Amino acid sequence: MAQISTSACVPYTAEQMFALVNDVAAYPRYVPLCSAVKLRSVAPERLVATMTFSKGKIKFDFTTENSMRGNHAIDMRLVDGPFKYLNGTWGFVANPHGGSDVSFTVDFEFSNALLTMAFGGFFKNIAESMVGAFCEQAALRYGSPDRSGPKR
Fold first, then answer.
1. Over the stretch 105-127, which tens digit does the pLDDT of each residue have?
2. Which CATH number is correct for 2-23+67-142, 3.60.60.20, 3.40.605.10, 3.30.530.20, 3.40.1440.60?
3. Using one digit for the tens of pLDDT, what is the confidence trace for 49-106?
4. Is the entire prediction scored with pTM above 0.85?
5. Backbone phi, then psi, for 5, in 5-degree steps?
6. How far apart are the C-alpha atoms of 69 and 89, rounded to whole Å?
7. What are the domain boundaries of the chain?
8. Could you tell me the CA-to-CA distances from 103 to 6, 21, 65, 119 in Å, in that order?
9. First to last CA, the chain
């Protein structure tokens, strides 16, 4: 079993960061090592998607069901993939000093020791880099932290 938690204080609203993280179809454009996404089901408060991650000859995909709690949290639950279990939560909280606090926590265990050896470090690196990737994408989508507007 592994648990990864990471967070950042960002100069963007909780709503902006929620929208960015919830735009799963865009992940292959900027999430490290995410090479494909297939949306399986989309509803206002629920999304099921299969994501493919690859680096060189290493490749794996998994499907999660994401449940949205307003625009302040996204809960992920494993539907299918090389894991015994995978559960995660994104949190988005307005910061009283401006911007918001974004957090990402994921608990996972691969289904067997061979998969853990093959993909454990790879998946850990992906999970640890997620918040940073979203912060960089927020600057591109919403503009630099000085609020000068979106970059063109």
1. 999 988 888 778 777 777 777 77
2. 3.30.530.20
3. 999 988 888 788 999 999 999 999 999 999 999 999 999 999 999 999 999 999 999 9
4. yes
5. -130, 135
6. 10
7. 2-23+67-142
8. 6, 11, 19, 23
9. 43
